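Example complex used in Figure S2.
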Amino acid sequence: MAQMNMKEAIRDAMRVELKNDPNVYVFGEDVGKVGGVFRATEGLQGEFGEDRVFDTPLAESAIAGMAVGMGIQGFRPVAEIQFVGFIYEAMDQMFIQAARMRYRSGGRYNSPIVFRTPFGGGVKAAELHTDSLEGLAIQTPGIKVIVPSNPYDAKGLLVAAIRDNDPVFFMEHLNLYHAFRQEVPEEAYTVEIGKANVVREGSDVTIIAYGLMVHTAVKAAEELEKNGVKAEVIDLRTLLPLDIETIVKSIQKTNRAIVVQEAQKTSGAAAEIIAQINEHAILHLEAPVLRVAGPDTVYPFAQIEDAWLPSPARIVKAVNQVLNF
Amino acid sequence: MSKLPYEVQTEPVTPLSILSPDGEIVDEALMPELTDEQLKEIMYRMVFTRTWDERAVNLGRQGRLGFYAPVSGQEASMIGSEYALNKDDFICPGYRDMPQIVWHGLPLYQAFLYSRGHQHGGQIPEDVHVLMPQIIIGAQILHATGVAMAFKKKGEKRVAITYTGDGGSSEGDFYEGMNFAGAFKLPVIYVVQNNGYAITTPYAKQTGALSVAHKAVAAGIRGVQVDGMDVLAVIKAVQEAAERGRNGEGATLIEMLTYRFRPHSMADDTTKYRTKDEEAEWSLKDPITRFAKFLEKKGLWTDEDTARVKEEAKATVNEHIKKAEQTEKMTVSGLIDSMFEHTPAHMEAQKADFQ
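Predicted assembly (680 residues):
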């Protein structure tokens, strides 16, 4: 086992799959020689050659659309969209063309594609580099959405995504790339897509989160512990399909829940999660499920990020509200 | 005034033409190599397609077909360009390009099913190398680019071909696709069937470029313009482009100057944006009439042949529309199961509402 940060684990997932499967191709803007602007693909071109790992011209729609064309010819493209805001340029190809290939062809063709993109706030990056656009993806039929929170999961989920025969939107939080290291097996392994992980057990309240917010939620849980409140923290890992079973099981125990997301509050992943809790666990609830989220504004890059992003203090406040309801 | 040294030089282009409107060969040296049987087969397909088009328009009016984009007038560019391909070349069509994928092997009843929104329409047989028509204008251009990338990486001597119209040549995906093909030297053919109108917007309002074919210059690929009412010129241009693609010489943009005799779709009214004079002028260039004159002079075709093919086409269309109508209807739970390889639990649960 090696110690890896999340970026290295992501790179390792691509490395093991490039090795395992000759149909895997990695491409995007600047991913070749230098290994991407965040170096997530560093060394891969050197190891596997320019045929398998290559730079493309700067055009996100064409990167995604080329992946669709390669996908119907039996390849497994891993296409990097350099920054999350650039997916707007590629939305037709990602969310329409790739996502409905199976439907349009009655299963004759499919899109075994991973669209990787860095996202997430708190790193003082440029405008439209750090937005949380997972809500757009989860409302799209035909594409899976994965947001890992740690190196071990990131590698296992990315390997699973590359092997998946349907398109996957794989969102990598910028603030987690170098945040910490973990033991990560050097061989290929998978973490099942659609299975959440209880990262901290508790009996008083369930905090549901994904990506960086899992760590913010754990910090809040540690604060709460000081006052004798035992919070259970669920790391969703996958937003679509959503592991509602794990959520319901936890709520049956805690009877209270909040959902934390970095994205704007209205109509996002949290809203969907609460709707499903309503459908599956309403009789187990003793308080409304609250959301801790960004306000419905444009993401304020660099300037007031820390004030805008959900903090442990805001989570503690929301937990106290549901406890005192 | 002469151009400055640091100014990009371009000249107007003259379309490739092999047959004059009265069916005379303009330039014997340009004639593609085709046997008499092949010439007759091309004629057969064009007459068949026009009859199918007439029937489809009527079926649309009767509510027996869904969205249908008429093709009359564009038979040379459609039939000729497909005829110039190999069976294992791959077609990424635009919404009007049903004839190309049917002649490439898609059973006609599946084309009808697609129009009726039935998923079986898109279940392309294993040995037929096409996608279903694309609705988002230009999106298919990038798929063809990706398919060509796959052929190149696999070292296969195959080409991808994709179609759009003069309107589609204004889309970002059109430029992005050609630029990728130029950068990677891909075996792909971009066909623009310039029929003069993007629904109602005339070509003059579509671009300031000297021609659509000139747009290839910026992408570093070959650009040619063809008389799209001349099936032999179309075949010649596509054969050349395919040959170049197979030889590793890269992509070609082919602008085919053509005209749709009918409206854009069943919901369109051409009298609002086209003049009778213009329509009459183009009808003199009818690709079927022109090719018939050529074949008649060679003693290869008669009016009786045309009548026979029309009857055959009508019978075939009837048979296939019946087959489409008799195909079992889709179900919502079948639809749910068609979204992912393995239906996720939350979608499995959604089936309950439809049982």
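Residues 335 and 341 of chain B are 12 Å apart (CA to CA). The longest helix of chain B spans residues 36-61.
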